[in-house]
């Protein structure tokens, strides 16, 4: 299904580009937020034909009313059922909604060294209410959000899922998933206690392929996985 645009003062392409620039976003950032690819956004801003799903995704990414974006109908900002404006929340230094930064963890020289690289282009921060952190005893500045790679933790974690890690918690616990640096490899594994020592185990039922690994001096626990964000139902 395609949307037929009206002949207002500005074109759909112009509204998309001007709103994107108003928010200070790149085409790549908008594409990630809208579930599109950067060339798709570029094509749209050059006047390409739009589909309903693209418009809805772009409206979400650009924090605006999809009717306004498509046909310049109604106000630019989305509204609630009560008719009140639903304004975007400013996350910069917001004490009520502290955000967890998106990162990539890289192993460094040495068996247990690692570095944290910020990935703002991966999307907006993962945000929780301040009282959630307080209830759990978490500190926002000690939390990291990163994407899962590989399928060793299927069916509980899939590639592309986002997990939040609490780096304040590094004490091994039975049956809990942790982010760890094991012999220079950054992994998410579930800890198990057996034969008087700790093991890194996979959730994948193919245990021949994903065998457990013993924790030793070359294993560094980086933090406990405390939250998962997934699109799988």
Verbal overview:
With 233 residues, this protein is an alpha+beta fold. The chain has helices spanning 12-23, 27-34, 38-45, 52-61, 66-71, 130-136, and strands at residues 99-100, 103-107, 114-118, 126-127, 143-147, 162-166, 177-182, 185-194, 197-201, 213-214, 219-229. Strands 5-6-11-7-8-9-10 form a seven-stranded antiparallel sheet, with no helix packed on it. It has a two-stranded antiparallel ribbon with strand order 1-4. The two termini are 26 Å apart.
Q: How would you characterize the largest beta sheet?
A: 7 strands, antiparallel
What is the radius of gyration? 22 Å
Q: Strands of the biggest beta sheet: in what spatial order?
A: 5-6-11-7-8-9-10
- Tell me the series of helices and strands, N- to C-terminal: HHHHHEEEEHEEEEEEE
Uncertain residue ranges: 1-8
- Which class best fits the helix and strand makeup? alpha+beta
State which percent range the strand residues make up: 15-25%
Quickly name the level 1 CATH class of the largest domain: Mainly Beta
Overall pLDDT, averaged? 86
Count of strand segments: 11
| General form | elongated
Q: With helices defined by DSSP (H or I, 4 residues minimum), what is the helix count?
A: 6
CATH topology of the largest domain: Umud Fragment, subunit A
Number of domains: 2
Helix content: 10-25%
- At CATH level 2, the architecture of the largest domain is Ribbon
Query: In angstroms, what separates the terminal alpha carbons?
Result: 26 Å
Full CATH superfamily name of the largest domain: Umud Fragment, subunit A
